[in-house]
Amino acid sequence: MDAVISFVKENPTCAFFYALGGFTFLKFAIKTLVVFSETFVLPGTNLKNFGAGKGSWAGRDRCTFLCIARLTRWIVVTGASDGIGREYAIQLAKKGFNVLTVARNETALKSVTDEIASGTQGKAQSKTVVLDVSKSDHPGWEQLQQVLSEIRVSVLVNNVGKSHAHPVYFAEAESSELSDIIAINVNATVRITRMVLPGMVKQQNGLVLNIGSFSGVVPSPMLATYSGAKAFIDTFSTALAEEVQKDGILVQCINPYFVVSKMSKIRKPSVMIPTPDAFVRASLNKVGLSGGARFVGRPAASAPYWSHSLLEYFIGVLGWKQATVVYSHKLHRSIRKRVDKKLAREAKAQ
């Protein structure tokens, strides 16, 4: 100890920088420990806190449906016909919720309903609303409002989304595509949340999962409108989470990297690209945790899948954001070239 004191007195500048370096390393080590703990060790909030297991009414008197429906717990999943949305509906049904699925494809919704009935042996009830959320005057909006007035919603999954058909510079993009991206990703999320949230506030309990994207975390050239829309989801979620925390409502923006889906046009899973089943399972196991998004200044954000969590941590904490923007631009230019070549071949073949 005497030697340390002597060193500090004789070399105050060096001692200061040694202390600063030690503090910086300690801070980094603590952040890393927290992120790795949330990613690989700690369990998320138990879904029973939001009514899991209180959704089924199998064996009860069907004549009392409306009364029972107000007491049992429901989830609402938008964009539930395929991919991540479909998996949220199926997996949450298996955890004991009744399920209201919303999408524009009636046939696909029927398939989800059948799988829920089969997977839960008829213990979970499911309803569907056919709704094209890109159209503000679609009749499905009135039907959705009517169904919501009859049930008690504990979980809302705002999954419906639309990206560009392929990477494109903003100045070259079709106006109709840009309008649809805003209507589906932004307007529909806000409108449906506004329809559901007052009921959660009244019951002082609820979970809202808004599905974002890494494109909203890191600006994505050649996907500018989609990237901006997902950035809105991230900011909207953080602001809303602070508002309704006092009401016992948890709001999170779930940010996936690539996932096998029709939207991503990726068919084979890998370390960085999980199947919808694996991604949703991770998401439901990590409810309330942020993972790699813990220390990046977006309190409501979450990267629940392990490889996505580590990627977001390295981008955010290590400050690689600008490098990622440049990489994203290069990647999208490459994809666009392949798309153009494919279209040229198809046109030549006709």
From TrEMBL:
Keyword S-adenosyl-L-methionine on entry: no
Record-annotated active site: Y226 (proton acceptor)
Pfam families: adh_short
A Gene Ontology molecular function term of the record: very-long-chain 3-oxoacyl-CoA reductase activity
Keywords: Endoplasmic reticulum, Fatty acid biosynthesis, Fatty acid metabolism, Lipid biosynthesis, Lipid metabolism, Membrane, NADP, Oxidoreductase, Transmembrane, Transmembrane helix
Catalysed reactions, as listed in the record: a very-long-chain (3R)-3-hydroxyacyl-CoA + NADP(+) = a very-long-chain 3-oxoacyl-CoA + NADPH + H(+)
Protein name: Very-long-chain 3-oxoacyl-CoA reductase
Organism of derivation: Thelephora terrestris
